[in-house]
What does this fold into?
Amino acid sequence: MNGNQIGLGKEGGAQTPSAVSHAASVQEKQSRAATLSDFMDDMPVGSLHRFVVWVIGIGLFFDMYEIFLVSSIGTALQNEYGLSRLSSDFKLLLASAFIGMFFGSFFLGSLADRIGRRKAFTLYLIWYSAFSLLGAFSVNAGMLVICRFLTGLGVGALYPVADTFLSEILPKERRGRLAAWAYTTSYVAVPLVGFFAVWLNPLHFGPIAGWRIILAIGSLGGVFVMFVQHRIPESPRWLMARGRVQEAHAQLRRFADSAGVPVPTLIEESLALRHPMGLGERIALLRRAPYGKRYAMLVVFHLFQAFGYYGFGTLASLVVKSRGFDVTDSTLFMALSFIGYPVGSLLSIPLLNWFERRTLVIGGILSIAMFGLGFAYSDSTLLIVLFGFLTTCASNVFSNAYHVYQAEIFPARVRSTAIGSTYALSRIVSGSLPFILLPVLNEHGPGAMFGVISVALAIVATVVRAFGPRTTRRSQNEINPI
It folds into this structure.
């Protein structure tokens, strides 16, 4: 191995003794025989790793754009279609994308275990981009509801695939930090769609309402992925799990070449790990220890975490409006609060390196509850924006931690199935939130609504602490022994 491969700086300067020692250790590890999984865990980060992080981050950017889109243009849609805040049609409009996300995550999430991470990611991104564009041409509320539902199918399926893909290709020492960079890229979309709403909602460009342009912008993700799809690698772990050994080794060499390291002599994975599993076999594995307990934990987790994360993002502008602020002010306040999403995501990058993932998930969810209650009882512009910002900031420390965490606690053969089927529950709960929380807001006020949210988040913290394993800096084989 040459000097560049074992750790010289970009300028080619002399190494410190500790750097030489670390480089020697890396070189020794790489020279030993290893399984493909072990080598992926110990490999240095290369340009192909960073490319995948970048592509997934941009793909998820449009995913988050779609998730927060209707809440940002909701008041414009009320005016466009003459809908009241408590009407069933308006609640359905808010909920339609989340209902689609449930079906997409539940029924399409496991498809990535059959067709591959690369194909699934590309397919879902193009799918929801196409229906987002179609939604911009909606002639009535009913058509928009259908388009939002179909958009949600692709959006719901995309995040589980992205979590799985990142978990499988990133080395264990940098897994959390690099995944957090992808998520941070995605969360820039949240304040962006908020400011688009402030700017474009009141405008008309001839006969074209501004909210239609906001919808059309969401379709650009499909254009992006069509330009880069030929360069996206497949997950070597998934290929190995499907028994496609030569293809797995070929993709592994792409990652190794980009990182400037040779591929060591690889020990053959056990036949069991190379056996393609049908849906029934994947379900059977998820019922075995230790995965049965982890799966049950994730079911409860996703049933209740949506109250905090999506409850705030979907309904916060209506909370502000209920306090007597006009549409423009409430939209601006929420756009300012939404800046906390990318800030919190950036903050999670060092935190994921400093703290155990499980601890960060628990701390994040309890912070959402605390700051959300502060937002509910705020009666001044400054406090509304401050607690809104703190709530969204905590939301994305929590979100990044759990997206990394849930992908780590299942083996590659069933990872997308486990994440997709449980993540689907958060989507259907999110779709039901307008029907659950809006009546509480209307009858009892913001404090009661955020009280309900806080109870749900306390349940999340309890089950993760009781049943969640530790994962930080542990290899995939350590975390997932079967």
Q: What stands out?
A: Confidence is low (pLDDT under 50) at residues 1-24. The chain has 22 helices and two strands. Strands lie at 204-205, 208-209.
